[in-house]
Structure to design on (76 residues):
C-alpha cells in the first residue's frame, strides 16, 4: 500500500509539467502572435524544473554517500 502512495505522490508531483508543456504548445499554435512569449515562458519554467531536479539529485547523492560511509564503518 505504501508503494502505491509513493507512486501516486510522484505522479501528482510530476504530472503538471507535461500538461503545462502541452498547454504551452497549444497556446503557441493557437495564438501565433504570442508564440515567442509563450516559448520564452515555457523555457524559463523548464529551466527551473531542471535546476530543481539537479539540486535534488545532488542532495540525494550526498546523503547516499554519507549513508554508505556509515554502513562501511559499521561492518568493518
Amino acid at each position: 500500500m505504501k508503494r502505491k502512495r509513493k507512486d501516486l505522490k510522484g505522479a501528482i508531483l510530476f504530472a503538471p509539467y507535461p500538461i503545462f508543456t502541452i498547454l504551452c504548445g497549444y497556446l503557441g499554435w493557437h495564438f501565433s502572435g504570442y508564440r515567442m512569449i509563450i516559448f520564452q515562458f515555457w523555457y524559463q519554467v523548464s529551466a527551473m524544473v531542471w535546476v530543481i531536479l539537479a539540486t535534488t539529485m545532488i542532495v540525494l547523492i550526498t546523503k547516499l554517500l554519507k549513508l554508505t560511509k556509515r554502513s562501511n564503518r559499521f561492518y568493518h
Summary: Residues 2-75 form one domain. The helical segments are 2-14, 16-30, 35-75. The chain has one domain: 2-75.
